[in-house]
Structure formats: C-alpha cells, structure tokens
Amino acid sequence: MSDEDAPDDADSEAAEDALAVDVDADELDERLDGVAESLEAAATEADLDAVAADLDDVAGTVEAADLPEPDEDAEDAEDPRADLEARIEALRGDLEEARGPYAEDVVAAVEEAQGTLTDAEWTDRGESEAAEAVATFLAAVEEADVAVDADAGDTPDAAVEALEAAAAAIGDAGFDPDDDAEPIAALVEAADALTSALDDAEVWDDLSVRQKMTAEGFYDRLTSENRKDFPPELSVVRIAERENNPERVLIALDYLTSEFMESNCIEALRRMGSPEAFDAMHERARKRDRSAIEVLGKIADDRAVDTLLEFIQDESNPPLQRTTLRALGEIGSEEATQDVADRLVAEDPGVRARAARALGMIGDPRAIDPLANRITDDDDDSVRAAAVWALNRIGTERALESAAAYADDRSFIVQDEAESAAEALGKRQKTRA
Fold this sequence. Notes:
Blueprint: H1 9-19, H2 25-41, H3 45-64, H4 80-98, H5 103-119, H6 124-143, H7 156-172, H8 181-200, H9 209-215, H10 232-242, H11 246-255, H12 259-272, H13 278-285, H14 290-299, H15 305-311, H16 318-331, H17 337-342, H18 349-362, H19 368-377, H20 381-394, H21 397-404, H22 412-432
C-alpha cells in the first residue's frame, strides 16, 4: 500500500464514529430498569438465562455507545459510562444470587468437607465431634429422599468414605434446580452446617501445651509422692530417666521452650544414650548444637558420622571440633578414621589431643603410624600423652610397642601412659610364652 492509499487519523476517527451506537445514557438506564424488573419476576432457570442474555446485550451497547466523557477539570463531574457499567455489575451480582441452589453446590461442599477430615490433625474429642457432624449430614440427606448406604463410623477415614458415598448419591439423584428447589436448599443448608461443625471440631492446634502433653501421656507417671521438683515437668523428666523412658523426655523437649528444661532434657538423654532420641538429636546436631552432638556420641549410631565429619573441618571453631571428635570416638566407626587422623595436625592442641583420643576409641590399626608420629613431632605434652593413650587403647602388639617406647619420656604424663602400655605388652608376651 502506498502512502497515498494509507488511511489518515481523520479517516480512522470517522470509522470509529460510524461504529459507535447512537444511544444516550437515559435510554440505556431505562433498558437496565427493564432488566431489573425481569430479574425480579424470573421464576425459572430459563427466565434467568433470558435475563442474562438481555444484560449482556445492554453491556455490549454501553461499550459501543458514544457517551459523553467526564470533564477532568471539573469536580464531581458526571461519568455516565462508569455509572452504567457499575449498575451492570450490580445486576450481574443479583443475577448470580438468584440462581440455584444446585445439587452441584452441595457436592462441592461435601468434597471440601472430605478434605477437611483428611487433612486435619484431630484430637480424640475432635474425631468424635467430626463423626457426629457427618452423621447429622447423612440424616439430612436421607430426609431429602436420597438413599446413602454408608455410616459415619467413629474415625475420620470412615467419615470420609461415608461422605464420598453421599456425594455420589446426591450427584446421581437428578435434582432439577426448578422442580427440586426445596430439597436442594435443604441439602445446601445441611452442607453449610457440616462445614461449620467441622470447623468447630477440636483439632490438635486448639490445645494448650499442657493439654497436648497430657494427651500424649507425659504426666501419667507423676503422682503427689514423686512430684519433688519444680516445675513438675522436671520431675517427669527425672522419673523418665530413672525408668529409661526417653519418649517422655522427647515430649518435653518438643513442647517446652525454656533453656532450663531444654538443658535438663538433653542432659537426661545424654546420660541414657537412647537410640530413640537419634532423630531429634541429629536434627539439632545439624545446627551445630554441641549438646546434641554429645548425645549422638552416647547413642553411637553410625548414621551420624557423615554429619559430624563436616564439623571437624571447621578450624574457626575448636570447641565444636573437640566435642565432635569425642562423639566420633564414642561412635567408633572406622569410616571416620582418616578424617579424624587429619585433625592430628590441627592448629589447636586441644583438637589434636581430642583427635588422638578419638582414634584410640575407634581402635582402627591404620591410626598407629599417625599417632606414633604425633608422639615424636608434637611439642605439646598433652597431645603426646593422648597419642600414647590412644595406642594403648588400640591394643595391638605393634601399637603397644610404639607406646611402650616412651616409658622413659621426659614428660611424666607421657611416661605414665607409656608405662601402662609396657605393662600390657609384657603381660601379652608372658601369656604367649
């Protein structure tokens, strides 16, 4: 197309004017009055469909109408298009309210109730309340002449199955929104009541901390005779430790937030070394909680090794390294031998000493040479003594020979450990002879 053939702006405006509908706001208002009257008189779904069609037609006309634009400079300027569009939206809302009720609405509400039953963490009381709410709804369904071969039962799973059967029966009943408006309305009301009752039924989060702990049996062993500590929860923790029952201690650790109770709980778990505490302590240990790492050492579960090995690399935190090395030694997994041996040359002498002792507790003969080298090369006698102790602990003949060689060492603490190794080696050789 050439520039001469292209339409100019004036031509475009003329085309738009030609498409505009020549109707004023008063006429459109009158048409909306007619739609409102038809809506008020509508008695069937077909009537409402006709009203919806008329409203769509008026809305299209308003969109195409050449209506005056408001004066932007004038205060409270009239905007006939905006006023008409607002009235159309209001009528659409009235139209939606006039429709139904429908059986599909009931089915949707029942399906939502099924989700609530499945997802909620019910208390024992809440389960009973939920089952009662479902039973009441099923009775309302029966009153609407819809047969449901199901019972609410006394568990959420049974109630879900009953509602599934009810939803299917309502969907198959063939309700007509015009002819069966009354029973449908009754079912909608029953479904609303079901939703409200389930919302009001007791769930776990409704309980106080003490109520939750009571429900989990935390206080079952507490009596007036053995309640000797304050707070009473401390008495329960101490009773649980005496009875080697980590479950109650873990309940307290889960719910009680004070540093005092947390410290007492972890100390009790450390003394018990119960495998049942592994998951809770491992989760805390991942956050570099040294107390939890100590408990993992007492539990001595190999699953903790990978997590703990990461911490002994942190040269910026010697206290964490020392605690972790001790735990690794107590766990005793040879998987840790090389990583622990690498700490024998750490900058902090306390870390080097703890690494040596950990190797002794692990007992892997592969650590003999690194430990012997530490006795020769280290300038800290506590580290050297720890290395001799570790060789004594490994206890093979070669390990004992390496340790016994320092029975005349200048350092008393090294000499003392070496003499123990020499004595053990002599007994072994005598027995063999």
